Amino acid sequence: MITTKETKVLQGDKMKWAPMPDHINLYHREIVSAQEADDMGISASSFLWELIDVGGQVRPHYHDVAEIIHITKGKVKVLCNGEWKSYQAGDTIQVPAGAIHSVANDDVEATEQLSVFIPVQKEQPKNAFFHTVIVEADNYPKK
Fold first, then answer.
1. Closest residue by Cα to residue 49 from 109, 119, 117, 120
2. Are 114 and 47 in contact (CB under 8 A)?
3. Is-contact 76 87, C-beta < 8 A?
4. Cα–Cα distance between 7 and 124 in angstroms, integer?
5. What does pTM read for this prediction?
6. Which single residue of 6, 78, 88, 104 has CA 20 to 30 Å from 112?
7. DSSP string, 43-100
8. Is residue 70 within a helix (H) or strand (E), and if so which, with residue range?
């Protein structure tokens, strides 16, 4: 059930980096929590903005959810399908539930990525691209 009715803005420079204790030099800012996803009526376990410091690594692991990782800054090595491969800002990794994966900083400065954790369902509804409805500008204040 959708309970959120207003647009919410999180200002990045006011968000604190929180350590991820089971990993090496990994920090995150949660952009959307499971509760916030519920309030918006969407299926998501979490949406994280992650920072991997020099020498850091998301240790090899797997989830009971699918994960989409989009590299936004720097160069990383990713363990996927049993091999380490190099990737960089702009690359996206799609990780199915149960797949072992890892991301390691492969740069001289901190790297950043966005990670979206999406619940999987045996009986999932059919997905479709979203619809947009344009609203006449006369109905809203000018910028």
1. 117
2. yes
3. yes
4. 28
5. 0.90
6. 6
7. --SEEEEEEEEEEEEEEEE--SEEEEEEEEESEEEEEETTEEEEEETT-EEEE-TT--
8. strand 65-73
- Torsion angle in degrees (nearest 10) through CA of 3, 9, 11, 12: 70
Q: How far apart are CA 102 and CA 67, in angstroms?
A: 12
Residues forming a β-bridge with 79:
84, 102
Convert the pLDDT of each residue in 77-114 to its tens digit: 999 999 999 999 999 999 999 999 999 999 999 999 99
Q: What's the DSSP call for residue 114?
A: E
Q: How many CA atoms lie within 13 A of 129 on its CB side?
A: 1
Q: Is the dihedral of CA 68, 66, 20, 54 positive or negative?
A: negative
Residue 138 within a domain: no
Only one residue has tokens 């790297």, namely 111
Looking at the structure of the chain, the number of domains it has is: 1
Whichever domain contains 114, its CATH number is 2.60.120.10
- Which residue reads 């609203």 in tokens? 135
